[in-house]
Write a structure and sequence with these properties.
Elements: E1 2-5, E2 12-20, E3 23-32, H1 36-46, E4 59-62, H2 70-78, E5 82-85, H3 95-107, H4 117-133, E6 156-161, E7 166-171
Helix pairs in contact: 1-2
Length: 174
């Protein structure tokens, strides 16, 4: 769970991110007051029988953020999900999630003045779409995760997201 500050009142906003083979999905945005109720709300959504992300999964790997309370871990345990807490100061053990958090902060959220939860949700959704469809990743030959073959000829065009904060250059198919 990554923590950002909401600009309108300074309250904390948490985003739950889960990475599988470099594919990232953000599973929730909650106003995090530091209380157990906000993390329990996220936990209940994660283990929901109908649409929960952890449905059918056995483990949740997470860091030692104080938002992962004892009650949150007990809720997961009750649902049959083992909560695996990473050792202190070990970002390489959860490298995909840590890299995504660094990327979304430096490429998007640090350059945006967020004016509320809805704006935060829109910015995160737009960035995740950019991250999967347009952003090159060195680990897979500088191709996007869900990329399509890139034509080698044609006019170069620019696609903007979030008012030009994120740009993608591509060739129009001839």
């Amino acid at each position: 769970m990554s923590v950002f500050r909401a600009p309108e009142d300074g309250s904390r906003v948490g985003t739950v991110d889960v990475a599988q083979n470099a594919r990232v999905s953000v599973k929730g945005v909650v106003a995090a007051s530091g209380s157990a109720s906000s993390s329990l709300s996220v936990g209940r959504n994660l283990i929901d029988d109908v649409s929960g992300f952890l449905r059918g999964k056995g483990f949740l790997i997470h860091d030692r953020d104080p938002l992962y309370t004892r009650e949150f871990r007990a809720l997961l345990c009750h649902a049959g999900v083992t909560s695996v807490r990473l050792p202190p100061r070990s970002p390489n053990l959860n490298a995909y999630a840590e890299r995504f958090v660094l990327s979304i902060k430096s490429e998007c959220l640090d350059r945006t003045v967020l004016v509320g939860e809805r704006h935060l949700r829109r910015a995160i959704g737009s960035y995740v779409e950019h991250y999967h469809l347009e952003r090159p990743h060195q680990g897979i030959g500088n191709l996007p995760i869900k990329g399509v073959p890139i034509p080698s000829t044609g006019v170069v065009l620019r696609r903007e997201r979030l008012g030009g904060i994120l740009s993608h250059y591509y060739r129009d198919a001839a």
